[in-house]
Amino acid sequence: MRIAHITNPHQILPPHGDRGRWLLVSSLIEEQIARGHEVIIYGNKKTTFAGARTEHVQLLEAEKLEGPATSQRTLRAYNHLTLLNKAYRHIDEYDILHCHLNNLHFFMSSLVDKPTLMTQHWPIEILTQQIIKRVPYSNVYIAPISKAQTRHESERIQYTDVVYNGIDIDQFPFNDKPQDHFAFIGRLHPSKGAHHAIKVCRRMKRKLALAGSTDLQREVYRKYWEKYINPALKSPYITYRGELTHKRQVPKFMGQAKALLFPIEWEEPFGLVMVEAMATGTPVIAFNRGSVPELVKDGVTGFIVEDEDGMKEAIRKIDTIDRQACRDWVVENFTVSKMADGYERVYKQLIKQHKKNNG
Fold it and tell me: Which long-range contacts (CB under 8 A, 24 or more apart) does 317-322 make?
């Protein structure tokens, strides 16, 4: 099969550091190459995968332009559109076009009769629905990464079957002898709910290791750090490990914890850290939001709770969870191989449908 992936012209793949969406895309591409597919990548010119062809465009940069200052947002939109234009001009060269970028391709797709598959690694926003309503004809199909992602359905959105994200299980060694602390990993942003984990562990006098990124140049992150994170670090129960490297540090961090605390305050479309934790044998205690009921098997691979009181109760009985069952659950449902199988199935469905519609 000839598969074209549209990625980000500003993002090198495989990514350096912990960039969840692009790690997933890179893993999928590597698996597809290993399976013998012909893969073409539209993205950054420094993106390299042995066995794949990379197509790129010359990026515009603000400092090289003459005249009035141009916003970075405008430049990024221009660069994205230029890359999309190149990909669609060569659409007859591949069987399927798989886009991981943004909503701009809805407009491009209306100019061709071959389907575009879109993986949106974030919630289906109101903006997306409004855009789709304004496109007179669209060949874009969205492959949801969870059932939760399709809750805000629109009659114009064309969904395929759900394709769950997957990880390389070998990168997450099983650990059946955890240390006596709990873990939180994620962006230190209000929506991720680290403050709930901090509050619960301090009240229960249980140790909590925090890890994740922050951006103190941005007001929302700075205020969150000053109000919740920095004061908590004075407690003997709370430590901050910084932003961890994905391959070297995250698996060990996950495996050493008695449980991962995941008190999200938004409709999480997937939540890869839950899968990564369970792969090491570490159960998950999560608020009942977004994709959580699909990823966590309540009472088997962790506990799904409604609030801080529920989290406290779950912590008290965390030793009743079999860590081997956590890993088995991931092996059965959330590996790179399973993800690649899912996308192949969707590709074939769309190709078959396209041939049927075109005689």
Answer: 318/258, 318/259, 318/283, 318/285, 319/258, 321/259, 321/283
DSSP 41: E
Question: Is residue 230 over pLDDT 70?
Answer: yes
CATH 3.40.50.2000 is the classification of domain 2-166+335-357: yes
Buried residues in 275-310 as b, exposed as e (16+ CB within 10 A)? bbbbbbbbbbbbbebbbbebbbbeeebbbbbeebeb
Residue 161: burial class (beta carbons within 10 Å; 0-12, 13-18, 19+):
exposed
166 Cβ contact list (under 8 Å, min separation 6) = 24, 27, 275, 334, 335, 336, 337, 338, 339, 340
Compute the residue count for the chain.
Answer: 359
Q: Classify 304 as helix, strand or coil.
A: strand
**Token pair in block for residue 24:** 């997933």
> In the predicted model, is pLDDT for residue 104 greater than 90?
no
Give the chain's largest Cα–Cα span: 69
| Distance set, CA 161 to CA 6, 36, 137, 285, 333 (Å) | 20, 24, 21, 27, 15
| Class of the CATH-defined domain 169-333 | alpha beta
Res. 102 pLDDT band, cuts 50 70 90: confident
Give span(s): CATH 3.40.50.2000, the chain: 2-166+335-357, 169-333
